[in-house]
Amino acid sequence: MTLPAALAMVLISTTAQAQDTESPPTHTYSAPLAATVEGRQRTIERFKKLEAQLDAPLSNIIFENLPLQDAVDALERQTDIRFVIDEKALAIAGVSPRTDVSLITGKTEISVRDVFRLMTQHLDVALINDNGFAVITSDEAAANTFVVRVYNVRDFVDDGSLQQRLGFPDYVEFPFYRDIENSIQQLTPGPWMNIDGRGGSLAHFDGLLIINHNMEIHREISSVLHDLRALRSTSDTAEEESHRSSPVSESLPRRELTNVERKLDMPVTPLAFDDVTLSEMLQLIGGKVGLTFRIDPLAIKKNEIDPTQRFSLRNRTEAISARDIFRLVTREYALELIDDGGIVTVTTEERAKTYLKNRVYNIDKLVADAATSRGVPPRFGGIGGFIGPYYFAWREVYPDTEFRNALQLSIDAPWMAVVGVGGDVVPVGDMLVIRHTEAVHRRVEDLIRQIDEADRARGWSKDFPKKPTAAERAAAEKYNAEIIAKAKCNDRKSDADNGAATSR
Q1: Rounded to the nearest 5°, which phi and psi values hold at 258?
Q2: Sign of torsion, CA 16 17 22 24?
Q3: 258, 304, 309, 491: which sits with the fewest CB atoms below 10 Å from its CB?
Q4: Cα 80 to Cα 53: distance, rounded to the nearest angstrom
């Protein structure tokens, strides 16, 4: 169906009633093309209805080298969604309605949105909700289709814990909105105008964030805020305990991720196969644990992995997880399993590093009574609360700062704060939002588990000073002042020597 015909058909059709499922709403909805109140409301209702349809589950999808148009027609019959193909944008991207797509989901239920994304993953194609119309267009066109949404973040802005975490006394005013703004921009791929010189924009007004960006970024922002609020609510209503032994690694991943991770870790026994292809092996493993696997054709092709390569596994009587079976059999090929909307995608390790996901970790009890290092000026090996002139030194390191540093140093992975690329760790109140790969998230959770276990094994003596006394603070201040004075003196001497050498 072409764009003009579809628009003409939809404009004369009736619209469904709005479904008020969000309470309170995560954000507002935009309807910039309507001039009247009634027209805007109809647009919003149409938009919400399509979002619900795109999030509805599908299963038993079998598309094998099927033309895109035929696959879209099949989806229309199953979902009652009318798709609009922007043929001009697709032609610019080198795609036509006759381009073949493939996807087999088996019994695994995944959303309509993910079905489309996975079957077109090798193409520069995207699906957008354009004011309630399901438009198939190019990746570039989708990335440049911006909408404005307003997010109420007053519950974050009014949180005094942010001020306390930053070390400011209660009477010092601080622009808290910067904290949540920076968090959002760090946890989304962007681009952002104030960072990259192009892309979306973010402004604040009266505890509201006004964000202009594409739909994919808006979905990520909404997801991050939802998870932060859900975890905060869980933490606030939990019973207070004297020891920080309650789970500290509670995160809120999506249901599909939890289900996939659990099944990949299920023990598989007995299992043996001999001289089977990668696809056949994945069918055997998937049948044992109830998962559907797909092979990323683009990644396999780029790494020149032969799809006809044969694999074997001797009969194992001990329990071993599906993830470990795959890792052992394919280890020489550097392949990785990732949760791709409920489907397990087999791709290369390098390509898996580009699949960054946000997870929220509650570290409140982890750092609540943690003993920390005393303050040393940053120039001399210390870590202060701010990045700034080296003469400025904190009296002590805050526990959450020390934990973030330890996490990034101990987990061997690229971190934006360390090497300028990779994942990020963003503090939001008593929580950490970590954006990284699934493999790194597993290591983060394991590190937190080990810290929790080690803490249980042996506690501090009751006489150990958890917080520095006034005398200790005074001594640290004096020590820092002496070091800073010495540093300034050395700098002046060095400048004088350099000046004398220049004059000669």
Answers
A1: -60, -45
A2: positive
A3: 304
A4: 8
Q: How many angstroms separate the CA atoms of 403 and 417, rounded?
A: 14
Read off the pLDDT band of 303 (50, 70, 90).
Answer: confident
Domain with CATH 3.55.50.30 in the chain: 3-143, 255-352
Question: Mean of the per-residue pLDDT values for the chain?
Answer: 76
Q: Which fold has domain 255-352?
A: Phage tail protein beta-alpha-beta fold (3.55.50)
Assign residue 94 a region (left: φ > 0; alpha: ψ between -120 and 50; beta: otherwise).
left
> Both tokens of residue 126?
């995207």
Enter the DSSP assignment of 310.
E
Per DSSP, the residues of 416-479 read HHHHSSSBEEEEETTEEEEEE-HHHHHHHHHHHHHHHHHHHH----TTS-SS--HHHHHHHHHH
Q: Is the pLDDT of residue 461 over 70?
A: no
**CATH number attached to the domain at 3-143:** 3.55.50.30
Distance between CA atoms of 10 and 82, rounded to whole angstroms? 9
Q: Which two tokens stand for residue 502?
A: 């220049």
Would you say residue 406 has pLDDT above 90?
no
List CB contacts of 40: < 8 A, sequence separation 6 or more. Answer: 31, 34
CA 254 to chain centre: 11
| Residue written as token pair 């924009």 | 201
209, 150 contact by CB (below 8 A)? yes
Instruction: Please tell me whether the peptide bond between 270 and the residue prior to it is cis, using omega within 30 degrees of 0.
Output: yes
Question: Which DSSP helix (H) or strand (E) runs through 108?
Answer: none
DSSP secondary structure letter of residue 318: S
Q: Which helix (H) or strand (E) holds 333?
A: none
Q: Residue 158 pLDDT > 70, yes or no?
A: no
As a whole number of angstroms, the distance between CA 270 and CA 320 comes to: 9
Partner residues linked to 200 by β-bridges: 192
Distance CA 316, CA 501 (A): 75
Q: Higher model confidence: residue 374 or residue 117?
A: 117
